[in-house]
Write a structure and sequence with these properties.
alpha/beta; nine-stranded mixed sheet; five-stranded antiparallel sheet; binds S-adenosyl-L-homocysteine
């Protein structure tokens, strides 16, 4: 039995069943045994591959989207270029390369990264050595200046709670431990104020998910953007309004049981973009746009053609595959979505038109 399984079983024996959120938090970020704390899980050799790891085009186009928004907002002379959960630092490296020729952009920026994992901070530092970068431990530490921010596959890693409905209301999915094994059970009836609005569109038997930390992150982004200007582009897999059990574990690119190997597999769940939008007080929120549409509108065809011109053979084939993976509706094009938060009265960031 793994060390983390023992720790979790001891904790459950001492203090009772845990919410999925507590379980997910321990599995992903436990200081010694957490998934993100102990490894760099991205890429073909790791457990999963994210859009920036598939092709440089993803970061380049998002970088130009942010830079255009910065120009549309009057090119503020000092701003923060930020990322939440930068992984290996690939997305930020691509953003910085693509914006190097945008007049005044690099001179005015401070790069700020929010990353919980010391191992991944190190990877990011190595990748971004040419730039002055600082790390923050909490979202509240974002400087009080205009904010141009991106978050890709960050919110899906934040812990969720799950509730199933019966005739009386909601019961929470809890992690229990018996006979040396973790299992999922249901709590007694649990009144939960933040789910009152879901009674009207669900029926007994339905499961919904909430993500308690997500609203806190979005509230701070919205406060900064409302007060100082800027844009936050959030890309993730999910949809408008949570319905159903989407809790999943992935190891070596294959689904595994979320309870089987705590700390050894990546745990995520779909992002509820409606819930993010509801937390974005005092700013404008774009429509939710499928990733494929966003990248097409930002000009991925053109960029893919430019890059293809310098390639041949296997390299060309893998470039074409990457383009397809990012945009095709049966690959990431439709499952992944994006929204942008921007200051009231400012121009809609490019790519988010209806
Ligand atoms: N954006 C990257 C990586 C996505 S994986 C990419 O697209 O490739 C999720 C990232 O968020 C990892 O870097 C992980 O360590 C970080 N992370 C997860 N939970 C976090 C938290 N609560 N606070 C800060 N960073 C967190």
């Amino acid at each position: 039995m793994s060390e983390l399984t023992k720790i979790l079983l001891r904790r459950i024996a001492a203090t009772g069943p845990m919410t999925l959120a507590d379980y997910m938090h321990e599995c992903l970020l436990h200081p010694e045994h957490g998934y993100y704390t102990t490894r760099a899980p991205f890429g073909e050799a790791g457990d999963f591959t994210t859009a920036p790891e598939i092709s440089q085009m993803f970061g380049e186009l998002l970088g130009l989207c942010l830079a255009q928004s910065w120009m549309d907002q009057g090119a503020p002379g000092r701003f923060v270029l930020a990322e939440l959960g930068p992984g290996r630092g690939t997305l930020m490296a691509d953003i910085l390369r693509a914006t190097a020729n945008v007049a005044g952009f690099h001179a005015a920026m401070d790069v700020v990264l929010l990353e919980a994992s010391p191992a991944l901070r190190e990877r990011q530092r190595e990748k971004l050595t040419e730039f002055r970068v600082s790390w923050i431990d909490g979202i509240d530490e974002l400087p009080q200046v205009p904010l141009f921010l991106v978050a890709n596959e960050f919110f899906d890693a934040l812990p969720i709670r799950q509730f199933s409905r019966d005739d009386q209301g909601w019961r929470e999915h809890m992690i229990a431990g018996a006979d040396g094994k973790l299992s999922i059970g249901l709590s007694g009836p649990t009144p939960i104020a933040s789910l009152e609005y879901r009674i009207s569109d669900t029926k007994p038997g339905d499961t919904v998910e909430t993500r308690p930390m997500a609203a806190g992150f979005v509230q701070v982004l919205a406060e900064r953007i409302a007060a100082f200007g800027g844009v936050a582009v959030i890309v993730d897999y999910g949809d408008w309004r949570s319905l159903g059990d989407t809790f999943q574990a992935v190891k070596h690119h294959n689904p595994v049981s979320p309870l089987a190997e705590p700390g050894q597999a990546d745990l995520t769940a779909h992002v509820d973009f409606e819930a993010l939008s509801m937390a974005a007080a005092g700013v404008s929120v774009s429509n939710m746009v499928p990733q494929g549409d966003l990248l097409n509108r930002l000009g991925i065809e053109l960029r893919a053609g430019q890059l293809a011109a310098g390639l041949a053979g296997d390299e060309l084939k893998s470039h074409e595959d990457a383009h397809r993976r990012l945009t095709h509706p049966l690959e990431m094009g439709k499952l992944f979505k994006a929204i942008a938060l921007y200051q009231n009265g400012a121009a809609l960031p490019p790519g988010f038109e209806t």
